[in-house]
Amino acid sequence: MLAAAAASAVRDLSPDLRFGRVVAVRGALIEVEGLSGAAQIGARVRIEGSEEPVEAEVTGLDRGIAHCLPFSDPQGITSGARADLKAGRFSLRPCEAWLGRMIDGLGRPVDGKGVLPRGEVPRPIKAAPPPAAARTRVGAKIETGVRALDIFAPLCVGQRLGLFAGSGVGKSVLLSMLARWTECDVAVIGLIGERGREVQEFVEDDLGEEGLARSVVVVATSDEPALMRRQAAWTTLAVAEHFRAQGLRVLCLMDSVTRFAMAQREIGLASGEPPATKGYTPTVFAELPRLLERAGPGRPGEGSITGLFTVLVDGDDHNEPVADAVRGILDGHVVMSRRIADRGRYPAIDVLKSVSRTLPAAHTPEQNVLRNEAKRALATYGDMEEMIRLGAYKEGTREEVDRAIHLAPAIENLLKQGKSDQGRADESFAALEAILAPEHQGDA
């Protein structure tokens, strides 16, 4: 009796160190037994490897077996390898000294500039968004330096916009323009699933020394495991939340949310989740709002996170599942068109399909009049464009079409920008007003 009671008491103790053993490795999934009653979803595990230990995370539990996914290549892990359960959840300690640095999804430096200093306050990588009733409201309009956005889809402090584009239409260049020109105190840039060769090009050529000096860049390239790509997205928001808590205006750029969703899909499928819409698992659509809602205004006394999240639309289908889900979460969407890019107008923003949910309040009444008039002219020209190009439209048939024919090329020319051609909102509206003036129409 005494022995049984003692054994029961020992089992009820919370040990300082709990470990199990690897029983199977199936692709990227590592199965560990011996952690029953101790391992939780999201817990960290350190697994012995033939060369060096492998960090992993518990992503599923099944009848005493913990399903773990590694943050690095699982090669070298053998059956029976020891797996130590680490105490606590993963957290970061960001500080101002992180500005100008590049880190990975675990907060480790990848730029060769030495060890990262540690701040005083730990910041959980996966955190809940601020309570809806405790958040401040979206603030005033800020200039992005991109004329198409400043006129037709303005960005406000604490707003979250999605950039929807197919591959090869200038999305990365637009991001670099926004990173350098948008008014903010700090920029946190997450390159999720990016091509390895493009990371250094983006930092050196597009971002530049001036842009990097006020930025923290979080990198997880496409060859890294799905868990690291997902972690990098969470780390991007965690670093941004740290600076928001300091009362700063933070610009958070993430390229791309689609690759975060793909990483979550890989994790879900490896953990045994059933595929749903186009192979995406249910947790993908649960994790998207948890990630994106972390951006935005903070509590009273805090700063804000103004978010710009790119969505890589599959086959230029803007209604595919991830794009459709993200569009319903964010405060507006900017559509980049391959048709516009093909005719050489960059940034290839389709202003007729782009929406900012801060309108019309973000603009003055006078600016809204100009914006609406310009959109009507572009819409009218777009409706008749095919007939005009074929010569089937005879000038004088419809007054509004004649006017659009004169106005549309000048408006398109105003929206054209190189990556070193920074726009000013007041100058952009003055130029648009001149284009729409009756005397301009007569000169055209």
Automatic annotation (TrEMBL):
It catalyses: ATP + H2O + cellular proteinSide 1 = ADP + phosphate + cellular proteinSide 2. It is an enzyme of class 7 (translocase). It holds the Pfam family ATP-synt_ab. Its EC number is 7.1.2.2. Residues 157-341 form the AAA+ ATPase domain. One of its GO terms (cellular component) is type III protein secretion system complex. Coiled coil: none annotated. GO terms for biological process: bacterial-type flagellum organization; protein secretion by the type III secretion system. SUPFAM superfamilies: P-loop containing nucleoside triphosphate hydrolases. Keywords: ATP synthesis, ATP-binding, Bacterial flagellum biogenesis, Bacterial flagellum protein export, Cell projection, Cilium, Cytoplasm, Flagellum, Hydrogen ion transport, Ion transport, Nucleotide-binding, Protein transport, Translocase, Transport. It is found in: Cytoplasm. Gene3D superfamilies: 3.40.50.12240. One of its GO terms (molecular function) is protein-exporting ATPase activity. Probable catalytic subunit of a protein translocase for flagellum-specific export, or a proton translocase involved in local circuits at the flagellum. Belongs to the ATPase alpha/beta chains family. This is Flagellum-specific ATP synthase. It comes from Allosphingosinicella deserti.
